[in-house]
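User: Hey, my collaborator sent me this sequence without any context and asked if I could get a structure. I don't really work with proteins. Can you help?
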Amino acid sequence: MRIRDLPGLGVSLALHAAIGVALALIHFQIHAQDLSLAVESLFETERTPDEFTREMSADTQVSETLSIVPGGGAVGASAVAGGSGTAGVSQTKIDASQSLQDPTVVVNVGDVTIPGLDQLGNDLGETQVAGEPTAIAEGYGAALSRTTQELVRMLREDKLLVVWLFDESESMKDDQKEIREQFHKVYEELGLVVERDPKAKREKDVLMSAIHSFGESVRAVTPKPTADISEIRSAIDKIEVDASGKENLFNAVGKVVDQYRSFVTRGRRKLVLIVVTDESGDDGQGPLLDEAIFKAQRARAPVYILGREAVFGYPFARMRWKDPKYGLDHWLTINRGPETAAPETLQYDGLHERWDAFPSGFAPYEQARLAKETGGIFFVLPHEEQNLVGQADIDRRKFAYLDLKEYIPELIKRKEYEEHRNKSRFRSTIWEIVRLLNPHNDKELQIREHWYPTDAVRFKEEGQLSFQRALRAMGLLNQATQALEKIKPLRAKEESQRWRANFDLLYAQVLAYRVRLFQFLLVMDEHLNNFPKPQSDQHNVWNIQRTTEMQSPTDRQVKLTKVDVDELNKQLGLARTQFEFVRKTHPGTPWANRAEFELNHGFGMQFQSTFRDPRYERVNSEIKFPTL
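Assistant: No problem. I've predicted the 3D structure and written it out in structure-token form, which is a compact way to encode the shape of the chain:
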């Protein structure tokens, strides 16, 4: 059997299930004689590439030809410099999963250098300074020290009004406490500089400050700007938690600039904004980002951001939360990326939306642009968050600048970004695949992995739904594979190393995820056909467990699908070859990290019974989830 017959496996399983022979628990109302006719007709029809570019409906047919070729040996690897440079917080609960594992990846670690305090007395002057969209900081202490130097530089020329903007989310409480404890250092150091500067000493209240906080709206914590440092410190403790869960950062920046524009003009002061947040903001998709940049530029107000690194190619991260009543773990979604104007990598992991928090090496796109275009700095703070998925390895993956210099995101307006992308067939095809395989937009791509009931009747119903979704997803992946193979010759002409890496990883993933879905179909078929008992009387649910060991097709499945162990291993080998190509071609980058993770994570599937606390069913009605 040739490679092109692999999609027939899914079709055969689905149709065979319908006749009640192989999958007796699924009732699809078709006749046995329809099976061979249906398969033959699918093989005779060639799918056109135009179908890929259209929205897929729920009744999408599985593509009948795979056309897979090894990617590693045929793709060029010349390195060319990269380009020139989002969704709201979800409160949806996702039960804790035992299968979530931290990826084990080792990356080159770049040296982190923060200028020392001995440079504070240098008369840098206030010339036009280009912003830094990504500056690695070892913690709040290092970031605040560098911020102090920036304020000293500006104090040489102007009196200042420094407005601190704090995120009101609950997850920021620990950060606010840490900043409050180190706050005095900034003002003590600035005070020393003022005392030593004759010009500054003659000026009254050369440095004034104000505290604001933002969530769904922006609030003034200090009634008016003040030079009283104790008032500033105590104001941090007064920051409330916004129950809405919104972080409208760019609206807040625009309003603060508007509020203090006349104040700084009358007082001949320079306005400086310092934002402290652990999310990427909820209002950066619309016009508010460009409006905030325009207002800050017009006011000559640099924006400094103490924030978190963007998740690689993905808008979200997941944080563990333990409910106070039952002590059960839940997963809450927070906004944390991506690093580009639009996602350039898959939002899908072969069964459902991504659950990882792979670091990108860069700041979130909107915040990076805000800092860069206003002459500020985005400080990437360490992920000292014990409840963040993937935290154990995030701490070990600080990317070296030299490793990422050819992969810098394009920090241009979204409209320009989209125009550049759409002019390229290579880039626009990659984007179409990312868009098409987005489970946040297409709920049919959400294939259940956990908490299947042990009751046979209920399992049949839920297993049937997952089986059908897996078949449809296989069809989309087949189309994605065909589309990528058509643009493969264009890879050598692509100038951006970043977009080459996007292609390389995406190609490996669509190859591998077909194998993952095929494994899912095999184990679901076997479970529905035999329905074994749970491993323990206390177990009340079945989970799909991912494993590095591949499930071999049974004799019955080989007869139905004409795909044996050799063919399955061949498919897996193609995917592994492409992942290895990504690792070797893009070492020390997020793309290589993801490839390493996929290789270690495995593509095999098996059912495993376990116990799920019944109290999870009560949480939604009895407990209010926090807004992070």
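In plain terms: The chain has two domains: 3-75+452-611, 131-417. You can pass these tokens on to your collaborator as they are.
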